[in-house]
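D-ribose pyranase (Nesterenkonia aerolata), 144 aa
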Amino acid sequence: MIRGPLTHPGLLGALAAAGHGSQVLIADALYPHATGASRHVPRVYLNLTAGLVPAADVLGLVAETVHVEAATFMLTADGGTSAPVREFQSQLQDRRHGSGEHVAWSGLPRNEFYAACRGEDLCLLIATGEVRPYANLLLTVGVP
């Protein structure tokens, strides 16, 4: 029997197969799930209805399951950081407080973010029910 909070078979299998440098996309409900990643990338659809499952909940479970080395987010139309991304930054900071671990953060304009998500290192796309715009995170798996 597995231990830990994550029990979704598709997520567990994809995260177990991810190695150092692999990338996981946590996508909001507005992201183009069908075309926003290579066809070979597995998709896990958790977007049950608007607001369910929130991206922050998914981020928490993914961060408990794999070591997050870096996070790339989509910049807002005016080149800023969205409220959801600021929450994600705080969430990962709080999770790592006192551990000495550091997550490198970077932002990309929309089209560059889409291009990065279509890259060869993406191993999983998780579609959430997050309805706040600019709530997408491209996580890079690191070494604990």
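The mean pLDDT is 93. The two ends are 23 Å apart (CA to CA). ok done for today
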